[in-house]
Amino acid sequence: CCHDAGLGLSQDHAMAARYYRLAADQGLAEAQAALGGCYDEGQGVPQDNALAVHYYRLAADQGIAKAQAALGQCYALGQGLPQSHNEAVRLFRLAADQGLAGAQNRLGLSYYLGQGLPQHLGEAARYYRLAADQGYAHPQCSYAMACLHGEGVPQNHEEGARYYRLAADQGFVQSMLALGARLADDQDVPVDERSLEPALTSVRTGARLLARATQSEEANGAPHRLQPLELLRSHANKREVVSVCCIGYGRPKG
To answer: Is 124:146 a contact under the CB 8 Å cutoff?
Structure first.
């Protein structure tokens, strides 16, 4: 919707939601998915989990992958309906089979955690790789973790570092810290005079962004997990870069 994206018109989320509703009420699946997103995020309409689920379901039943993934996330979180990891996995798989990277990443996490299906690290790595190769930073970080620890794939530090770099180049904070710490500490990554400064820059950039995120959480009254300097210190002392970055800070929704 042009009002939603501000394409040729002034950005107006309320007007966008109004037009989405007009189209959704006529059964247009993409509009139903978009309206579900409006209610999910509280953009242009009051935030309402139940209505988000309602419109996501209408669109998901028509095969819209984004709506299937979003509805799956609602089931995974118990948001707007009773929690069901089994139903979440079913919906993630429907969307993943259509090639949706976010659903592939989320299905990989379900396999990794053993939520809604038996734990299977090989399948987790496979779905992370499918999403990572579509250029998305978060699954690139997760697949790097699998490669570095040999979880579901043969251990391969060079491949892990390569995927960390791909995610770090997109500004993904966890990968910036992980790659920077590995480079600076020469952990299975070739370091020469030219690569040392980018390594340190990556660490500094990651620390700065994490500090900003921590300050934002504190301002909103949310408990923070690790202070940036504590995170960096854990890298240096434990050499557990991947676990701290990708598990300690959690995984984003979707």
So the answer is: yes
Q: How far apart are CA 100 and CA 222, in angstroms?
A: 31
Average pLDDT of 199-223? 55
The CA distance from 31 to 10, in Å, is 20
The dihedral sign for the CA sequence 178, 204, 166, 170: positive
pLDDT digits (tens, 9 = 90+) for 4-39: 544 445 567 899 999 999 999 999 999 999 999 999
DSSP line for 27-44: T-HHHHHHHHHHHHHTSS
CA distance 140 to 62: 30
Secondary structure class of 72 (helix, strand, coil): helix
Question: Which H or E element spans position 130?
Answer: helix 121-132
- What average pLDDT does the chain have? 79
pLDDT of residue 205: 59
